[in-house]
Each structure stands twice: as structure tokens, then as C-alpha cells.
Amino acid sequence: MCLICVPPGPSHLCGPAPHASVVYNTAPVVCPAPLTASLVLSSRFENIEVAERVLRDLCERAGCNEEDLRPLLSALWEALANAIRHGNRRQADRRVLVEYAVDDEAAVITVYDQGEGFDPDTVPDPTAPENLLRPSGRGIFFMKQLMDRVEFTSPPAGGTCVTMKRRLNSTVRSADNEE
Amino acid sequence: MKSEVQDHADIRIIKLAGKITIGAGDVKLRELIREALDGGHSKILLDLAKVSAMDSSGIGEMVAAYTTVRKREGQLKLLNLSPKINDILQVTQLITVFDVFDDSQEAMASFA
User: Fold this and answer.
1) Which of A138, B61, B104, B106 sees the fewest Cβ atoms within 10 Å?
2) Coil vs helix vs strand at B79
3) CB of A79 within 8 A of CB of A90?
4) pLDDT tens column, B96-108
């Protein structure tokens, strides 16, 4: 069985927020690369673990080992923590959309929030001596350390979209994944 | 996150276990530091041997704990960093801020 879904885009953030919902298309078709899934979450920190489980599931199906999976999980955690706390300001009725795409070469994770948007260039370098004792401002730094590419955009519908990509070393699609 | 508190003379050792992450462990750490300071313990040793994960919020809370204790003219030091936590402190440059120990006796002797 493969996981497929059409990337819903930020318009799926409209409407009443469920606690958490994941879109899997399990139709019996030939599974194209990449393996994809999308997940809509209400803005609760405990939902981050739901998003982690989906990522772990996709990566296991793609044949990722723990060494590849670990930085992806940490980067996802930081992106969702930012989206929930800074983007959606912990308002549970605001949604976070997560899109995943994993193929033989790379994993791409995109997180949308419904916040006011921000300029990532204004976030100070947390490793600068004058910022070392700041209690916050390390999330984006961690994401950039963990992933090969991190890009922030401002979707027309509002909010912030962060797309993160990391090359994978371990993926070996098994026959099961192609069924 | 779970915690265990031990007092050795005027030194409070706080043993942490599990995740120090947003929404749970970070808040618990803040409470533990406040309890220690309110109880007159200004020499605090955080034992991180059993900490399995720490995110940017957990790191931020540890920095906040450090500055809070310093403002109260106390000292906060770290004991038993796992390789993962050590890596986090290295990459964030915070290894230059904290006093870090692998041996509890040596750590306790360092509190002057």
C-alpha cells in the first residue's frame, strides 16, 4: 500500500479546525514517487507528535534508516513549534497544514500556519555573543542546521509557509513500497 | 519529563529524565528552578544524563534558568551531557556559557 494525496495547498486551512486529520489516499494504484501525505492540525503542541508519526511512517515506507529520520523529525518539530507558538499564537482554532514528500533522494516537508507572517531575516543570529543568553530565537537556526534547504514564503492567503528539504542517504524502496 | 531532586548541603541536584521540549518539559524545568530558588537553593546542578531529547524551547528554558539563577546571585551548572545534548550546546555556542561536568563529585566541589 502506498500513501498518496494531492497536495491540498493552504486553502485547506479554511473551515472549522479538527483536532488533527491526515489525508491518505490508499487507492490501489501504482505508487508514484514520491510518497506523499498531508496533515491538518489544530494549534496544540501535543499534535506535534501526531505529525511526527506520519513522517516516521512515510520514511519507514521509503526505507529511511534512523540516521536519516532523526534530523527530519527534529526539524519538523521546530517548524511546528514555531507555527503553533509564533505563527498561530497558540489559538487552537487556527490550523497548521503539513505536507510531506519522500522519495529515493530527498525528503521535503512544508508547514503552513495562519499567523500574521514574519520576515525571517529579522531573526538575530542566536550564536552571536550578544544573543547567547536570549531565551528564544533558536528554532530557525536548528532547522537550518538539520536540513539542506530551508525557505520561508508568504502565501497569498496569509500566514507563513516554510519548506525544508534534506537529502537522504539510506532510502531503498522495497517491493512492498511499490505494491 | 520526569525529575528527581536531591539536596547535598547547600547544593540542589536536579536529575531530569525524558524530553525537555515545548509545552511540557520546558515548563516543568522552569518550575523546578523557581522551587529551588524560593527554597533558598541558589547552587543548582542539572543532571541531564537521562534527557532523551531537547528542542530549541528546552534549550531556551535552560538559558533562562541560567540567567534567573545568576540574577539571584546563584550558580547553575550542568552534569552528564549525552552526546546529543553536548552537540546541541556546541552548535549553539552555549557550551561557552555553561560549566559542564562528567563527574558529580567534581561538579559539587566546583561550587565555591
Assistant:
1) B106
2) strand
3) no
4) 999 999 999 999 9
**pLDDT above 80 for B22:** yes
Residues 6+ apart with CB under 8 A from A174: A63
Q: Any chain B CB within 8 A of the CB of A81?
A: yes
CB neighbours of residue A90 within 10 Å? 13
Among A70, A90, A136, pick the best mutation site for testing chain B contact (most B Cβ within 10 A): A136
Tens digit of each residue's pLDDT (9 = 90 or more) over A69-96: 999 999 999 999 999 999 999 999 999 9
What is the value of ipTM here, to two decimals? 0.90
pLDDT at A118: 87
Is A131 touching B (CB cutoff 8 A)?
no
